[in-house]
Write a structure and sequence with these properties.
By secondary structure, this protein is of the alpha/beta class. It has one domain (9-354): TIM Barrel (Alpha-Beta Barrel), CATH 3.20.20.210. It is 46% helix and 13% strand. It is built from 15 helices and eleven strands. The chain has helices spanning 9-14, 35-44, 47-52, 54-67, 81-85, 107-111, 123-136, 149-158, 166-174, 176-200, 217-234, 257-261, 276-283, 302-316, 336-349; strands spanning 73-74, 90-93, 97-100, 142-147, 204-209, 238-239, 242-243, 246-250, 267-269, 288-293, 322-326. A seven-stranded parallel beta sheet has the order 1-4-5-8-9-10-11. Strands 2-3 form a two-stranded antiparallel ribbon. α13 links the parallel β9 and β10 (288-293). The longest helix has 25 residues, at 176-200. The chain is globular and about 60 Å long.
Length: 355
């Protein structure tokens, strides 16, 4: 694990240290928009078999780095590995998204949830982290991640994706103490899971709160932010003599950025519905910011992509502490050459903001 990093721009930016240009990576950069990913998934046989085989997970993690001059790799896995390890019967249906066979909807269901040992039930993830770190050989840092307890909880209670969140919101307003018990259990599992990723070699970690934006402000603070704060407080912040930054990302969470900065996280993800200048003023440069190009910009021609990249960079403005990214994951039907146009534009346009 002691191989020196050849490119540490991403880690430096997360700690608001000077960088000669803005580093970048893409959420879902290892994914279905790449033909080589689709080929590897076909070879693996299913999405879960891809996730659970450390060699396949390593291969798809590295694929985007072979195409693009990115400044970080992100572990190929899924936010629902914890429910899978809890024995809730996770399946991915083609075109349907994830399905949980045994949703958790009662006090008795919560009582039956086991305690996880990430080096046992989630050993395949830790083996993937170790394999990826070895294969990266210090080229760029590796990001580990987990879903937020609230977001993972929505799948666990709903039994899959949901537009209305009727089951979990029914629990939130009708049996809040029950939901807190479930979220506390998921929080303990998430802390152990992320700690294990760091010990296995993850050099930064990110918590994805995909569905926090579906909550009212009061409910967000009580049922999402509260548990993310517990995770931030519990994580090891140094490994191999270097700080391990923590990134929080609530999709649709622009109104809560100041409170998210209060958690002690090093950086916050920002989606495209919040202007980066507004976000930067809101957090008063206390944390780094990551984002926030609308992923749908990548459907446009390269000249338009370049113009929008320039707009995002100008929105953040001069100075350090910005990691360029999409405001959410890259769409599966984006042409790979359009992602290349975005990467090239960041490399070309960002140095002027660091002089």
């Amino acid at each position: 694990m002691s191989t020196p990093l050849k490119n540490d721009l991403f880690l430096r930016a997360l700690l608001r240290q000077p960088t000669p240009r803005t580093p970048l990576w893409m959420m879902r950069q290892a994914g279905r928009y790449l033909p080589e990913y689709r080929a590897t998934r076909g070879e693996a046989g299913s999405f879960m078999k891809l996730c659970m085989n450390p060699q396949y997970a390593c291969e798809v993690t590295l694929q985007p780095l072979r195409r693009y001059a990115l400044d970080a790799a992100i572990l190929f896995s899924d936010i629902l590995t914890i429910p899978h390890a809890l024995g809730l019967g996770l399946e991915f249906e083609a075109g349907e998204g994830p399905r949980i066979d045994r949703p958790v909807r009662s006090a008795a269901d919560i009582d039956q949830l086991p305690t996880l040992d990430p080096e046992v039930e989630l050993r395949y993830v830790m083996d993937a982290v170790r394999t990826i770190r070895r294969e990266l050989d210090g080229k760029v840092p590796l990001i580990g991640f987990a879903g937020s307890p609230w977001t993972v909880g929505t799948y666990v209670v709903e039994g899959g994706s949901s537009k209305t969140f009727s089951h979990i919101k029914g629990m939130l307003y009708g049996a809040p103490e029950q939901l807190h018990r479930l979220l506390a259990h998921l929080t303990r599992a998430t802390i152990d899971y992320l700690k294990a990723q760091v010990h296995a070699g993850a050099q930064a970690v990110m918590v994805f709160d995909t569905w926090g934006g579906a909550l009212s402000p009061a409910a967000y603070r009580e049922f999402s932010l509260r548990y993310m704060q517990q995770i931030v407080a519990a994580l090891p912040r140094e490994q191999d003599g270097r700080r391990v930054p923590v990134i929080l990302f609530t999709k649709g969470g622009g109104q809560w950025l100041a409170e998210m900065a209060d958690t002690g996280a090093d950086a916050l993800g920002v989606d495209w519905t919040t202007d980066l200048a507004t976000a930067r003023a809101t957090v008063a440069d206390r944390v780094a910011l990551q984002g926030n190009l609308d992923p749908s910009v990548l459907y446009a021609p390269p000249a338009a992509i370049r113009a929008e990249v320039g707009r995002v960079l100008a929105s953040y403005g001069h100075g350090h502490g910005h990691v360029f990214n999409l405001g959410h994951g890259i769409h599966q039907d984006v042409p790979p050459e359009h992602a290349a146009a975005m990467v090239e534009a960041v490399h070309e346009l960002s140095p002027r903001f660091h002089v």
